[in-house]
């Protein structure tokens, strides 16, 4: 993590007002939350849901080495090391930007409508077989999280994998300019955040902002099956020195699968290099996340042996096709971190292809942030679910009722049910589920389906 003198920090954040008696004092790490602050941290009070300046004294009480203070905020504490800045969020970003420029680490930036967290985890698992590697923890992928991730990097880190998320235009541009990736990647373009972006075309343009800070002699890896990305790239001025790699289904791409097989334990696939790869996680859609990861690994000159072993030992962030075997003998697949029509269809398809289970139960929550056509997207989801391939469907939330309404005529009446309460949903599932069944949970993060999962494990 960052370790600097306060005089250095003052310069890096473009601050002022630090008493010279504190110039040589050292900070170790950065915190924006007193609940997780460690002694020696620099505390940065963020103006977000709450005013972080209200917690500066608490930060010092917990051992903070110094704090920033936004100049327009009244009553700064006295007798402690304070650096004044115009805006604390901008200061955090400036600190991360300058620290990144002082590192020799290779940076891999990953964005996309779906799959970016899983791909980040895959790349980390592969790259850490060869290099000292760090990655974005949890969902620290935005205007606060990415700078904090950068500031957590050890100075001898050789490769860092940074996830980049967005809700609005300009956000990926900011993150890319801070991180200055050497390898940039777009997993795919879906309709997540279409309520704020307006169209898939706008989403594609926003994701391509990752090229803004990309090393002009670096590498850009993207899903070549997406026409919107191909079309937008033809309009952009791309440095001749930039290496571009496409992956996807088409044999016209640099990387594509020639065969895929799924078992209860994971997915096996053969790439166009004729090599066989194994990923110990469910979902054929994850093959493309793995292929993108393989492409990045090869750019870093990682051996084929290490690529394969890294993929096989991957540890996926929770709630991404997470398989949980319960004491009562049934299996839960928790894929409830987020949901879009693309990812929900993929999860349902994965369920239909599983073998070795007595019955298959699907629990679906609302897909949020889908804009004016949100009802139609849910109706279409109901149309793709077939009785026989799935035995029970339970839905929860206002929008997901559109899914269950599509199923009543095609499923036995006791096999489809809509719920408003998560407590009632959990109680009903417990009364239905039996040993050797498998149950999928899929919905947007705001639905908090993990609460139901926790009651069943």
TrEMBL record:
One Pfam family this sequence matches: Mur_ligase_C
UniProt xrefs under InterPro entries: Mur-like_cat_sf (IPR036565), Mur_ligase_C (IPR004101), Mur_ligase_C_dom_sf (IPR036615), Mur_ligase_cen (IPR013221), Mur_ligase_N (IPR000713), MurCDEF_CellWall_CoF430Synth (IPR051046), MurE/MurF_N (IPR035911), UDP-N-AcMur_synth (IPR005863)
Broad enzyme group: ligase
GO molecular function: UDP-N-acetylmuramoyl-tripeptide-D-alanyl-D-alanine ligase activity
Keywords, sorted A to Z: ATP-binding, Cell cycle, Cell division, Cell shape, Cell wall biogenesis/degradation, Cytoplasm, Ligase, Nucleotide-binding, Peptidoglycan synthesis
Keyword presence, Electron transport: no
Pathway(s) per entry: Cell wall biogenesis; peptidoglycan biosynthesis
Residue positions binding ATP: 112-118
Record localization: Cytoplasm
Enzyme Commission number(s): 6.3.2.10
Reaction equation(s) it catalyzes: D-alanyl-D-alanine + UDP-N-acetyl-alpha-D-muramoyl-L-alanyl-gamma-D-glutamyl-meso-2,6-diaminopimelate + ATP = UDP-N-acetyl-alpha-D-muramoyl-L-alanyl-gamma-D-glutamyl-meso-2,6-diaminopimeloyl-D-alanyl-D-alanine + ADP + phosphate + H(+)
Ranges of residues in domain Mur ligase central: 110-297
The keyword Nucleotide-binding is annotated on this UniProt entry: yes
Sequence ranges assigned to domain Mur ligase C-terminal in this UniProt record: 319-445
Biological function: Involved in cell wall formation. Catalyzes the final step in the synthesis of UDP-N-acetylmuramoyl-pentapeptide, the precursor of murein.
Family statement drawn from the similarity comment of this UniProt entry: Belongs to the MurCDEF family. MurF subfamily.
This protein's name: UDP-N-acetylmuramoyl-tripeptide--D-alanyl-D-alanine ligase
Organism from which the protein derives: Paenibacillus polygoni
Lineage of origin: Bacteria, Bacillati, Bacillota, Bacilli, Bacillales
Gene from which this protein is expressed: murF
């Amino acid at each position: 993590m960052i370790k600097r003198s306060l005089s250095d920090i003052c310069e890096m954040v473009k601050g002022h007002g630090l008493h010279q008696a504190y110039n040589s004092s050292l900070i170790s790490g950065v915190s924006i939350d007193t609940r997780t602050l460690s002694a020696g941290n620099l505390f940065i009070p963020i103006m977000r849901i709450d005013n972080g300046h209200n917690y500066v004294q608490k930060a010092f009480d917990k051992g903070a080495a110094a704090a920033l203070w936004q100049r327009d905020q009244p009553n700064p504490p006295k007798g402690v090391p304070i650096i004044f800045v115009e805006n604390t969020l901008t200061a955090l970003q400036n600190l991360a930007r300058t620290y990144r420029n002082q590192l020799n680490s290779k940076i891999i930036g990953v964005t996309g409508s779906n799959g970016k967290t899983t791909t980040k985890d895959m790349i980390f698992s592969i790259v850490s077989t060869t290099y000292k590697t760090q990655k974005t923890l949890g969902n620290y992928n935005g205007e606060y999280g990415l700078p904090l991730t950068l500031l957590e990097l050890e100075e001898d880190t050789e490769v860092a994998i940074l996830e980049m998320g967005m809700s609005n235009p300009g956000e990926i541009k900011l993150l890319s300019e801070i991180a200055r990736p050497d390898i940039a990647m777009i997993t795919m373009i879906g309709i997540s955040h279409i309520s704020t972006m307006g169209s898939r075309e706008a989403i594609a343009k926003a994701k391509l902002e990752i090229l803004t800070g990309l090393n002009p002699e670096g590498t850009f890896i993207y899903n070549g099956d997406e026409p919107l990305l191909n079309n937008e790239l033809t309009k952009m001025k791309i440095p001749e020195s930039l290496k571009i790699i496409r992956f996807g289904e088409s044999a016209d791409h640099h990387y594509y699968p020639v065969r895929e097989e799924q078992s209860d334990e994971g997915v096996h696939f053969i790439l166009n290099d004729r090599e066989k790869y194994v990923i110990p996680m469910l979902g054929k859609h994850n093959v493309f996340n793995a292929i993108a990861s393989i492409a990045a690994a090869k750019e870093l000159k990682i051996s084929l042996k290490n690529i394969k072993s890294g993929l096989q030992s991957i540890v996926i962030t929770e709630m991404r096709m997470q398989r949980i075997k319960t004491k009562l003998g049934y299996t839960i697949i928790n894929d409830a971190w987020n949901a879009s029509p693309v990812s929900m269809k993929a999860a349902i398809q994965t369920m239909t292809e599983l073998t070795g289970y007595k019955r298959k139960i699907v629990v679906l929550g609302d897909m949020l942030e889908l804009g004016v056509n949100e009802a139609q997207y849910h109706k279409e989801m109901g149309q793709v679910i077939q009785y026989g391939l799935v035995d029970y469907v339970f839905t929860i939330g206002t929008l997901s009722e559109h899914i269950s309404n599509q199923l009543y005529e095609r499923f036995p009446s006791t096999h489809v049910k809509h719920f408003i309460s998560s407590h009632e949903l959990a109680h009903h599932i417990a009364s239905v589920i039996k040993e050797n069944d498998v149950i999928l949970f899929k919905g947007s993060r705001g639905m908090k389906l993990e609460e139901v999962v926790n009651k069943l494990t």
